[in-house]
Specification:
This protein has 26 helices and 26 strands. With 747 residues, the chain is of the alpha+beta class. Strand 25, helix 24 and strand 26 form a beta-alpha-beta unit. It folds into five domains: 69 residues, 2-Layer Sandwich (Alpha-Beta Plaits), CATH 3.30.70.100; 149 residues; 84 residues, Distorted Sandwich (Calcium-transporting ATPase, cytoplasmic transduction domain A), CATH 2.70.150.10; 136 residues, Rossmann fold; 118 residues, 3-Layer(aba) Sandwich (Calcium-transporting ATPase, cytoplasmic domain N).
């Protein structure tokens, strides 16, 4: 038997992009015997080894890369969820956005007049250049501080990123402008920035400030996307119970959940969540598993049956013996699967990050060579520095700061109008390659709402009379099946009859006096105990319903079973049309469900799906997605339950129905606000269009750099023209993104 590896989690701070996570991961994996994975979204490094782990060595390795780390000290299993909750409470997520938002707003207010005075002669009041200096200084040094700090840290460790180019470009524009103000004639009163004579000095404060604001906007939107990446794990933690009614020395005590031990017995009353996994010792009830499994039909449990924590007791009082607590529970295991899937999903690098390793050093080299060339040719320091600064400014990625955020904002805004929420640009990359779409059954294809589907009455029995009597009887019950029957009876017959001598037995059914009849509604067992026989015809109807995964309720009075009432959920009206649209988009739909094969195939036939995977446990859904990916398929997953969360995170594209659980929504990449499966096809079309827009924006953002850098190096493009080129490229990027407002799904 293989030895279980030791594992430690580190909290990493100071990372500004996915490439930072890659640097940290590489540094940790260079230690002998270490297998490390760094999750940029959660800012955690998971380190495992067959040998004992030295925390100080791991932390030191992270520090040497230029980042900070601290150990997340392991607690006993039953205390880990509580610690996580405390950490989340201590550091509210919304607070993490406050600083970048305030920095962006403040810099925007200061930048607008700087750009306006530089570009509009009518606004160039006396000594406007000096006013630009005053307004630009806090933007360049305080506003752009994150870029300067990242540049310094990376340079200390021999690395250059886009932060490096941004920092050098903005500082060069600022200090060159300051030089022109102090040493030359740029600070002369009445100097016109737009109409000055050829060869006259210019200031470029608007370039430095505009670049800073554009890039701060990009970082802010990135921070928003990053904040949501850990929401799945927080939603999972919120599902669990906070306290438990434990039985100790014959007394019932209410204690915090982290104090519960394996082997102890606890009480679960009707309407309460089960505190943890266990085995029923006493009592019978119906357990609503929908939060965990996504299936709407309650499960009847009794002594000896296993139950799962976080599920809802919809019926009677239960006494349960705890079999697992804390991180050993099914809920905790699903949470771990979600985190593993998120960590293992390779983050899509933006084009700017992918080429930075080559682009940035080349630009810096070109700027240095330009400076050297003009100095060696005797052109003078002013000409040499002007050409070098022009290279840096023209290469500074102003349009790149707009390329992704503007397309994403317009695309997501249009998506919201269509009932589609796109969480971030990193998930769009996979939409072009998706060839297989996996759909959960309950709550996705079906409505997940239990309804009365059929009344199979004996030959001598009127179905309306069945509904009047059984509907009235079930009105006194709180069972979900009973509520479905009562709702159908109200719609069909109107006001309900009065019920007396009502009696209910968990796991069997209900009985009572209705309209002078002793009426029974429930299982075969209830009928047998009351010596009521079931005819072969009705017994066959019951078996057929149960084979299809539906609930069959036997109805009897006068000592005779009169009817079988079939309860279940049905496909959404739009599901069949939606499946056809997905197939037209070139996708192969696959139904993935925990139901039996017959029930699953019935639903699949109704909506036009040919591939069905049935009888799948929650943890197996995750594995089924991995199996499809191992076959070379690019998989999209559509689901709505907690059991779908890990599969949604593992899929190349996770799509959650907005009517589903918060966990499923948080773990997904796309969320469908409207409960219409047609929105899946709309989402894929919009995602692909948004991705195409981003790529076009990035192409032109880099394209003008590549074309203009040689001109700048040759001294044919002064910094002012370079600044204008940057503005024009930004205008193109913005206008191209705004085209997404006219997006209309093709039906």
């Amino acid at each position: 038997m293989s030895e279980k590896p030791h594992e430690i989690q580190l909290h990493i701070t100071g990372m500004t992009c996915a490439s930072c996570a890659a640097h940290v991961e590489k540094a940790l994996n260079q230690i002998d015997g270490i297998d490390a994975s760094v999750n940029y979204a959660t800012e955690r490094a998971t380190v495992s080894s067959l040998d004992e782990l030295d925390e100080s060595q791991l932390i030191q390795a992270v520090i040497q890369t230029g980042y900070s780390a601290e150990s997340l000290q392991a607690l006993p299993h039953n205390q880990q969820p509580q610690k996580q909750q405390q950490q989340e409470q201590q550091q509210p997520q919304q607070q993490q956005l406050t600083s970048p938002r305030n920095r962006l707003l403040a810099c925007s207010v200061l930048t607008v007049p700087v750009v306006a005075m530089a570009m509009i002669p009518a606004l160039q009041v006396a000594n406007w250049q000096w006013w630009s200096l005053v307004l630009a200084t806090p933007v360049v040094f305080w506003g752009a501080y994150p870029f300067h700090r990242a540049t310094w840290m990376n340079l200390r460790h021999g690395k250059a990123t886009m932060d490096t180019l941004i920092s050098i470009g903005t500082l060069s524009a600022y200090f060159w402008s300051l030089y022109e103000l102090l040493a030359n004639q740029a600070g002369m009163t009445g100097m016109d920035g737009m109409t000055g004579m050829a060869g006259m000095p210019e200031v470029y404060f608007e370039v430095a400030t505009a670049v800073t604001v554009f890039l701060l906007a990009g970082r802010y939107f990135e921070a928003r996307a990053k904040q949501r990446s850990g929401a799945a794990l927080r939603a999972l933690a919120d599902l669990g119970a906070r306290d438990v009614a434990v039985l100790r020395n014959g007394e019932e005590l209410r204690i915090p959940i982290e104090e519960l031990q394996v082997g102890e017995q606890f009480v679960v009353r009707p309407g309460e969540k089960l505190s943890t996994d266990g085995i029923v010792v006493e009592g019978r009830s119906a357990i609503d598993m929908s939060l965990l499994t996504g299936e709407s039909i309650p499960v009847e449990v009794g002594p000896g049956d296993s139950v799962t924590g976080a599920t809802l007791n919809a019926g009677g009082r239960l006494i349960v013996e705890a079999t697992s607590v804390g991180s050993d529970t099914a809920l905790a295991q699903i949470s771990k699967l979600v985190e593993q899937a998120q960590s293992g999903k390779a983050p899509v690098q933006r084009l700017a990050d992918r080429v930075a390793g080559v682009f940035v050093p080349v630009v810096l080299l070109i700027a240095v060579l330009t400076l050297a060339y003009w100095l060696l040719t005797g052109a003078g320091a002013e000409t040499a520095f002007s050409a070098a600064v022009a290279v840096l400014i023209i290469a500074c990625p102003c349009a790149l700061g707009l390329a992704t955020p503007t397309a994403l904002l317009v695309g997501t805004g249009r998506g919201a109008q269509l009932g589609i929420l796109i969480k971030g640009p990193e998930i769009l990359e996979s939409t072009r390659q998706i060839d297989t779409i996996v759909l959960d059954k309950t709550g996705t294809i079906t409505s997940a709402k239990m309804v009365l589907l059929q009344v199979v009455a004996a030959d001598s029995t009127d179905s309306d009379q069945v509904l009047r009597l059984i509907g009235a009887l079930e009105a006194a019950s709180e069972h979900p099946v009973g509520r479905a029957i009562t709702s159908a009876a109200l719609d069909k017959t109107g006001a309900l009859l009065e019920v007396t001598e009502f009696w209910s037995e968990q796991g069997k059914g209900v009985t009572g006096q209705v309209d002078g009849h002793q009426v029974f509604a429930g299982t075969q067992r209830l009928m047998t105990e009351n010596a009521i026989e079931v005819t072969a015809e009705l017994n066959a109807a019951q078996s057929e319903a149960e084979l299809l995964g539906r609930t069959a309720v036997l109805a009897a009075w006068g000592g005779v079973v009169r009817a079988v009432l079939v309860v279940g959920d049905t496909p959404r009206p739009s599901s069949s049309e939606a499946i056809s649209r997905l197939q037209e988009l070139g996708l192969v739909p696959v139904l993935l469900t925990g139901d039996n094969a017959t029930a699953a195939q019935t639903v699949a036939d109704q909506v036009g799906i040919t591939q069905v995977i049935s009888r799948v446990l929650p943890e197996q859904k995750f594995e089924k997605i991995k199996e499809l990916q191992a076959q070379g398929k690019v998989v999209a997953m559509v689901g709505d339950g907690v059991n779908d969360a890990a599969a949604l995170a593992q899929a190349d594209l996770g799509i959650a129905m907005g009517s589903g659980t918060d966990v499923a929504i948080a773990a997904s990449d796309l969320t469908l606000v409207r409960s219409d499966l047609n929105a899946v096809a709309d989402a894929l079309q919009l995602s692909r269009r948004t991705l195409r827009t981003i790529k076009v924006n990035l192409f032109w953002a880099f394209g003008y750099n590549v074309a203009a850098i040689p001109l700048a190096a040759a001294g044919l493009l002064d910094p002012m023209i370079a600044g204008a080129a940057m503005v024009l490229s930004s205008v193109f990027v913005l206008s191209n993104s705004l085209r997404l407002r006219r997006f209309t799904p093709a039906i």
